[in-house]
Design goal:
By secondary structure, this protein is of the alpha+beta class. It contains five helices and seven strands. β2 and β3 form a beta hairpin.
């Protein structure tokens, strides 16, 4: 009996020391596009526990530079608002912020992958995300291949 408890204790110590218990890690990927009219920055954060995606957050930040768009800022903002209606439903949340003084428009989509319904995910174009077997490293490679700069936190 003493031998079994010693083996169990050694095994438990090994697991705690080596970190075999799945840790949460977050992949943050940023893509920036700049032209004469506006700057567009996209930041995607994906939190994994082990190799399973648990949470995703996507931010799109637009800063208008073109004087014609600035002069028609309200029309621009109205059009953007039509395409980005805020919601908080079934594990997904979309928030919109605009800064009229600095001509900035920001959308943030927050997805609780574990608790989001399949219907809500499909509605936003993320059907199948719960079954996706991509690891954090797979996602990092794919994003960097598409031109993003990524860090793991």
């Amino acid at each position: 009996m003493k031998k079994i408890s010693t083996i169990f204790l050694c095994l438990l110590t090994f697991i705690l020391i080596t970190g075999c218990v799945a840790k949460e890690r977050t992949l943050v990927c940023t893509t920036t596009e700049t032209d004469d009219d506006m700057d567009n920055e996209q930041v995607i954060s994906m939190t994994y526990k082990g190799n399973k995606l648990k949470h995703m957050k996507m931010e799109v930040n637009i800063k208008v530079k073109d004087s014609d768009v600035k002069n028609n800022w309200n029309m621009f903002k109205e059009e953007m608002d039509k395409n980005n209606q805020e919601f908080d439903k079934d594990g997904l949340t979309l928030k919109v912020e605009s800064d009229d003084k600095n001509y900035e428009y920001k959308t943030t989509l927050d997805i609780d992958v574990e608790n989001a319904t399949e219907e809500a995910l499909k509605e936003q174009g993320f059907d199948g995300i719960k079954d996706d077997r991509s690891t954090l490293e797979d996602s990092k490679k794919a994003a960097e291949k598409d031109g993003a700069t990524c860090v793991i936190k």
